[in-house]
Specification:
This protein is α/β, with parallel strands linked by helices and 207 residues long. It has helices at residues 26-34, 51-55, 63-70, 74-113, 116-158, 160-165, and strands at 8-12, 39-43, 58-59, 170-173, 191-196, 199-204. A 3-stranded parallel beta sheet has the order 1-2-3. A 3-stranded antiparallel beta sheet has the order 4-5-6, with no helix packed on it.
């Protein structure tokens, strides 16, 4: 089954305007704009701007900033959920307190005129409001929890350690440390370092 990426990062470190000119290409800009997968543009430094920045869904100031946008901190998300829980709970308590204050004022006014039925109706309205507020608060808390769970699954899927655990490896040139993405990078005899799930080892390529 072909997996669809959750996000695409178009990035390059800083450089001269000539180095960044490829990101002003019309075909590239149209491809970024037409992408159904969200695209984060992180070309050059924060002061650099290219056409890719204006057609992407989000512009990050640097490539590392783009990585942070694509992989939010799970602890921060949990903290946000706890904050919203507290806010919702406080909102419910405040509205219930306001409703009770209003009811007390109504009861005082009604006692002077002795309309018992009106008092009963107001009590029922307050109880109904309290139940609806509590239900709504629980629904919002459950929604935030689902959002946090989805974000946590997304973070786990992006974890490179999980990829290594499935049998993949990261191969780098020993001297430069650059990741090897093509067999042309290791033409001839070269020393390489291979990272697997439980550590690294060195090897040497052959023609």
């Amino acid at each position: 089954m072909k997996l669809k990426p959750d996000v695409i990062i178009v990035a390059r470190g800083g450089g001269s305007i000539e180095d960044l000119w490829a990101f002003n290409d019309e075909r590239g800009a149209r491809a970024i704009f037409a992408s159904r997968v969200p695209v984060i543009s992180a070309v050059g430094h924060e002061t650099d701007f290219t056409i890719a920045d204006f057609v992407a869904d989000v512009r990050a100031p640097t490539p590392s900033g783009a990585a942070e946008l694509a992989s939010p901190d799970a602890r921060e998300l949990r903290a946000n959920v706890r904050f919203f829980q507290q806010q919702l709970a406080q909102l419910a308590l405040d509205q219930i307190a306001d409703a009770r204050t209003h009811l007390s004022r109504q009861m005082y006014a009604l006692q002077r005129n002795a309309p018992d039925a009106r008092v009963l109706n107001d009590r029922q309205r307050v109880d109904d409001l309290a139940r609806r507020l509590a239900t709504r608060a629980h629904q919002l808390i459950a929604l935030k929890r689902e959002t946090l769970t989805g974000a946590a699954r997304h973070l786990a899927a992006l974890n490179p350690e999980a990829t290594l655990a499935r049998g993949y490896a990261i191969v780098r040139e020993k001297e430069s440390g650059r990741v090897i993405k093509s067999k042309n990078q290791v033409a001839g005899r070269k020393s390489i370092r291979v990272r697997v799930r439980d550590g690294e080892f060195e090897a040497e390529t052959k023609n």
